[in-house]
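Protein details
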Amino acid sequence: MRNLTALLTLAAFAGACDQDRPDAPLAENEDVTLAPPATAEDGFQYVMPPYDVPAGSEVQNCYFFESPYDEDICVGEITVAQNPGTHHMNVFRLGTEYDLWGDPGDVVLGNSDTTSPCWRSSNWADWPILVNSQQSYADGFYDWTLPDGVAHKLKAHEVLMLQSHYVNANTQAGDHAVVYVNFDRVPCDDIQEVGTVFASNQGIDVCPGDVDVTFSASCGNDFPQDVTVIAANSHFHSRGTHFDIEAYDPVSGDYGDPFYENTSWDEPVMATDLDVVIPEGERLGWHCSYTYVDPVAPATCSDLGAGCCYVFGPSVETSEHCNMFAYYYPKVEDYSCI
């Protein structure tokens, strides 16, 4: 059952916060802030309602908001400010309605209950991702400027969903979740629209004795035309040691040279300066490597999969992920990686 609570979460266009990016790292117990775009013509800001994360727990909530404009707009820059300790933040465009749904201002509380719709990835299987970030830099900021002539296009009053996951346990320590997102506008004249890919290899199991064990995956569909990848990101949990993304040729079965590599599980840097052409008829492929680590109390083998293995699942403490994100142009309508 959905747990929906109406919230006034869309920030005013100006004056929502009077601080710009700080010159120094955040002080202890200081929350990150982010000044909004100066005017409505410049863009809009979403401010997530803050929440606390009790010691020894993980909290994941889903927040619904809308583009506040009566006309379609183009977004050419996205800035994210998050308190330290974030595990991930994703902004989705709504697709098919399953168990997870909401109107602007609604929140589906996941908290630590992994049976909540906000935790179940099948509920957003065809929801295009707009931006993702797992970074909480020392100053709390992540800024992505898209290439000239390339932008996200949002429909008038389009509803979006921000999902925030914080962990305050053995693997990460984030006890107070704060998230700001700025969406800066650009003119829509002569714009090529961004397409996005969010895919996951769920066939992973990291078992006792495994050292740099690697799992490979590729999209199930070819690109029907040449596309250019402009940004990419990765996501796995604390057993992850290496992640790479490359082109995959389904005819030869060969993977190309990696154009994205990451070895930092908790602060994976999103590559935003890519200019990688994936030829027509090829796909995206990715590899995830892991080294087994014994569970840390209070987790025990009984919390893991059979054989005390970490298998695919939502909990940072007791399961693993192998998620690939890619942003490309021109957008291919109805393209799915699955």
User: Anything to note?
Assistant: The chain has no helices and 24 strands. The chain has a mean pLDDT of 89. The domain at 195-329 is CATH 2.60.120.230 (Jelly Rolls). The chain has two domains: 43-190, 195-329.
